[in-house]
Write a structure and sequence with these properties.
With 262 residues, the chain is an alpha/beta fold. It is 50% helix and 16% strand. It has a single domain (2-184, 201-215), classed as 2-enoyl-CoA Hydratase, Chain A, domain 1 (Alpha-Beta Complex), CATH 3.90.226.10. It has a six-stranded mixed β-sheet, sandwiched between helices. The protein has a four-stranded mixed β-sheet with strand order 4-6-8-9.
Amino acid sequence: MLRIERDNRGVATLTLDREEARNALSAELVLRLTEALAALAGDKTVRIVKLTGAGKVFCAGADIGEMRAAGAAPIEQNEADSRRFALMLESLEKLPQPTVAVVNGAAYGGAVGLIAACDIAIAGASARFALSEVRLGLVPAMISPYVIRAIGSRQSHRWFLTGEAMDAATALRIGLVHEAVDDSSLGDATHSIVKALLAGGPQAQAEIKLLLQRVTGRKSAVDESMMIDTTRWIARVRAGEEAREGLTAFLERRKPGWIRDE
């Protein structure tokens, strides 16, 4: 479900490994990722953390079956489920080591939040991105602070509201990723970024991450108040009739009721 590998340079690679489910973020995977990030944060031998997906998909976002079940659960359980995801994103952002998202394929919904929470993102040319929540009757609540910080408010209006897929070149243009390269060159591009990061002082890099948070006016992309607001927001929306229809339609491989044939 989550592979953790380290090399002798201090580079740790976290690989989302649910190929049969397109590396979707189940509750169990979110928990394992949170635990892995906590362990890496306290490990002084780790210099850089890379995040990628197994196979040809980076991550399909949240596990849709679990999302539907959470929406039907009591509100306390619904919100608790959302908070676990929000805490995982916070752990990724607050990691003292530099983080690099290596996007090797499709990245939808919550996966875009993972990318935006990383310090640096590199994508292969065949990668596709979508903030697809709206097409399920949902909202990109917990990931919104990270994504808006990456691409800006104006771009967020379009991509949040339409749920359109974008290619790697568009993701580069709007600031979601720092580089978009041929798929065959993704390994080399990642190696170059890692080499550049390894040339910096690890304590200085940790301080720079804190400095960036301070200078941009927030301690982090989300504070406790924001986290409470966004977790309650998604919990409320996914418990509603429209989200239940959207999630059910996805699982039943049909159009949701709000789409009418022209």
